[in-house]
Amino acid sequence: MTGRTNMFPRFWPNAARSNRIRTLWLVGLIAVLAVLLTLSITIGTRNVDWADIIAAIGGAQDTIGQAAVALRIPRTFLALLAGAALGLAGAIMQGVTRNPLADPGILGVNMGASLAVVIGVAWFGMSSPKAYIWTGIAGAGCAAIFVYTIGSSGRGGATPLKLALAGAATSVAFASMVIAIVLPRGDIAGGIQSWQIGGVGGATYERIAPVLPFLAVGFAISLLSARKLNSLALGEELAAGLGEHVATARAIASLGAILLCGTTTAVCGPIGFLGLVVPHLCRTLIGVDHRWLLPFSALGGAGLLLGADILGRVIARPGEIDVGIVTALIGAPFFIWIVRRQRVREL
């Protein structure tokens, strides 16, 4: 009893201090997110005074300024949801694969959802929002299974490098297939090409409402997988020794990520690199405990996508740049930095 009692003074203060630091980072992240939400509503191609902004938040649309703000509110809400979904999905994928390069875009999941949606539109005349969502989820799931199967083949199993290469090759192949399907169809080419860039412009409450149940289920499954991901981080053998069913834990966590990726891609188009950048930054701030990392990644993803959307509106005024382009400009150098930072053996 004496030895056990002496352990608590040694370790408990460190744990308490660590949790206090994480709580402070959480408060700071929420404050930054609140600022970005305000900026997203107030900044656009048209300058709007505060009286119109407040009136528009209250539901008024009597002036051009109020109508402009009314359009920004659902756009901001969609960016918040999509960013949180992609940030959380990236953290889940990195945890499931134990791969520092895992990302819905790099692993081909987003492009799989995109290809499925394009096939549904071009070949089956799909137009229902729920059909888009179900098709996107199915495409994301099939792509994830395909990439993991290819990356697991051969000696050494599913190493991070093999998964990244399999995902990159799959993304290129799926992107080529999308082009091949769309090129002969002039009637849908313009809309598909615009959607393929990835963006949150043109959002409406009617467009957002169908995705809410799917995202809610995806968020719930993903966040409840935190303890399982902590076990998987110890290695398969140790996780199994602790009583964790490794295959089931991976499947459940992956299901949450697939729901988030497929749904987000269906409504916004493929937005890359966000799921790569955000979990790495959050891991630097609060560590590897998924009970903290997953909520932080969701909030960080929401903040980064909102910031990218605001930046796209500011630097191209009176036009705008879609968030898919902005996140690519941010994420591509970050991806190169991660690859250069990791030793070849670790990949």
TrEMBL record:
Superkingdom in the source lineage: Bacteria
Keywords noted in UniProt: Cell membrane, Membrane, Transmembrane, Transmembrane helix, Transport
Entry's Gene Ontology cellular component terms: plasma membrane
Molecular-function annotations in GO: transmembrane transporter activity
Alphabetical GO biological process terms: siderophore-iron import into cell
Membrane topology: Multi-pass membrane protein
Pfam short name (any one): FecCD
Subcellular localization: Cell membrane
Electron transport is among the record's keywords: no
Primary localisation category: membrane
Transmembrane segments: 21-43, 76-93, 105-125, 131-151, 163-183, 208-226, 292-315, 321-339
Family stated for the protein in its record: Belongs to the binding-protein-dependent transport system permease family. FecCD subfamily.
Protein name (database record): Iron ABC transporter permease
Protein source organism: Pararhizobium antarcticum
